[in-house]
Amino acid sequence: DAYGSAIIPAPTNSAKQKLAAGVLMTGRQAEKKTIYTAMGYLMNDGAPVAYIHAGGHINGSDTLEADIQDNLKAYTLQDASTAPEDLKAAARSSLRLLEAHAPGVVYPLFAFVYLAPLLPVVNDTLGDTGFCLYLQGKTQSGKSTLAALALSHFGKFTSMTPPTSFNSTANYINELAFILKDCILWVDDYHPQGTKRE
Q: Do residues 166 and 189 make contact, with C-beta atoms less than 8 angstroms apart?
């Protein structure tokens, strides 16, 4: 116990144990880094200290590194500013989502946009609040455009660039949901016409 975690037990004659011990011994001088591979708030003692996105972070230290997989690079918050005039302009742009469709459609969507980054606080208060929002409508009724407008609060998206679709496996969608912590994951139902066998 007094030695802490730095102690490395001597290996037996097993080649596998000797290799493991050799890696541990040479690794002591290796540079150690923490690289975040999921987005959302980085918490410290229950308080958010930075918001990680695919392009870096907001309010984090210069040493904080993030490496988000390439297919999620659209989740980049470029030129995030805390200047009061920029914050007002961003709020006005965000509120314009409420003009995009009928109130019964866009109000829940708008609330969903702001609930996603607040989930760490909400979950601490209410427990796990995992749920999803489903946009239903006829083809060409603007579902994908509305989803893209909502998702544009978290990056640069168009109605033709959903992060994933129903064609993806359940495991892949679960992985994306984990990586996109405190963000919205848009799963599009678009399914191109296939063969009769498909």
A: yes
